[in-house]
Amino acid sequence: MRSHIVLYFGKPGAGKGTRTQKLKERTFLLDDFMILSTGQMLRQAVADGTHLGQEAKAYMDKGELVPDHLIVSVVLDAIEKAAENQKSIILDGFPRNLPQAKALTDALNGKKIYVVDFPIADEIVIERTIHRRICPKCGNVSDDTHKTCNQCGTTLIQRSDDTEEVVKRRLDSYREDTEPVLDYLVKCPNVRLTRLYPTISLEEDPGMETFFRSLH
Ligand code: AMP
Fold first, then answer.
1. Does residue 169 sit within a domain?
2. Domain count, the chain
3. Can you list the residues of the chain whose pLDDT is less than 50?
4. Spatial separation of the C-alpha atoms in residues 54 and 147, rounded to whole Å
């Protein structure tokens, strides 16, 4: 398999991470992929108290995008590292605005980009995210019907930005900053767009499976 670049788009709680995790658990299709969730990377930086985390925290708590200079070079370095190791890469959460998208397309210089969009209604997003719980140790995603992580037993927590007020601001940011990125990317000749609508069962996700199979 050649190394591929896949970009995920979708509102918070669209199921990007969970559907990827389920596919990874039941197939080999993602074995050659590095998965970089910029939100997860930033939450880890906050938890570790790194310089990046300290700078990013206030923006994240408000549901705003962190400044581009904190994120663009980290992501471009990760893409380079993946390519050096002949790995494909999924970017979940990047690019989130036009300057990030332009930095990415400039760096990729015409390389094929696979964009996967996960459309979902706002009401479902709000309902899902306020009930979402995550494992602070392994990142596993669950809901508030569970108290502990079913992978490692750690007590689940609620993300500080998964409150209704902050989720609404994150949805505004999605509409204002991120949707224009999709419009920009689909006009690029090297971009192929796939839309994956919500599935009834996370265990069976034929759209995800067909998409990743087509890359092999
Ligand atoms: P997510 O887990 O993707 O919902 O991201 C959580 C938060 O991390 C966002 O609300 C932003 O504050 C920040 N974030 C994640 N990715 C980016 C990005 N590409 N650019 C700027 N901020 C980001």
1. no
2. 1
3. none
4. 28
